[in-house]
Amino acid sequence: MKESLRRFLITLWFPHSRLFWAFLFLGFIFYEACGLYFQYVLHLNPCIECVYERACFMFFGVAALLGVTAPRFFIVRILAVIIWLMSSIKGILISWEHRGYELTKDDPFAETCGFFAEFPSWFKLDEWLPSVFAPTGICGDASWNFAGLTMVQWIIIIFICNAVTAGLWVLLSCLPYRIYRKILSGKEGEKAGAE
User: Fold this and answer.
1) Which of 7, 56, 139, 161 is catalytic?
2) Model pLDDT for residues 124-162, shown as the tens digit of each residue
3) Options 50, 56, 77, 99, the catalytic residue
């Protein structure tokens, strides 16, 4: 039992395994489902910044799908982790700007966000999937909170946690697959115990 639990935890926390990438994909599904729940059940219309944050979460799913295809290969693994890291960093920047709109919503001279998404012409998410990526709300509207934090503050925390984790996984991705297999099989621990 202990051995199978150890193997499961190692498999779960190394980007060399499909299980890790499957869990990241589940995280992406959860984040997107939360956004759709807020939009369609709680009727909190997404502003342009919310839409951009959703797009960053979407790239978690892209990274997960790429990683699950061939995690044994360094190029695939490192590319998937870098996509995850870069989308987390971009998400932090967008949500930080979004938080600024929340803080200055009552200031008539403060800058406001736009009303139309400005995705690149080759990536028009707002036209391809308007039910998810078309902005219909106003930036700065902080009508929902949990534990004293607004939705944007929670999104900042989520992106920071993902960026830190993805940064660590960049380092773990650099481990050759054969070393991962040794750790998984417990041979490293056996050698240390023998000495």
Assistant:
1) 139
2) 787 787 877 777 777 767 677 778 788 888 999 999 999
3) 50
